[in-house]
Design brief:
Blueprint lengths: L1 H39 L18 H17 L3
């Protein structure tokens, strides 16, 4: 019985050790790939996003939201 417990514990430690080593290698490789890509990948073209400021709203967006609310309220009356 004691030999079986020792074999089980040994197998558990070997398995956990292998999983730990694999995860450490995976983290190292992911970090290495991230550094490699940042170093050699071309910079994406800069885009100027046109967005409404906090005080500005797009009339089309307001109309679409209003229409959606109106349709929801007419179809889901209590």
């Amino acid at each position: 019985m004691l030999e079986l417990m020792n074999a089980g514990i040994e197998l558990m430690l070997v398995g956990m050790g292998l999983v730990f080593l694999f995860l450490v290698m995976l983290i190292v490789l992911i970090n290495w790939m991230a550094l490699f890509i940042q170093r050699f990948a071309p910079e994406p073209p800069a885009e100027q996003a046109v967005s409404a400021g906090p005080g500005q709203t797009d009339a089309g967006v307001v109309a679409a939201i209003s229409a959606a609310i109106r349709r929801y309220r007419t179809t889901h009356k209590s």
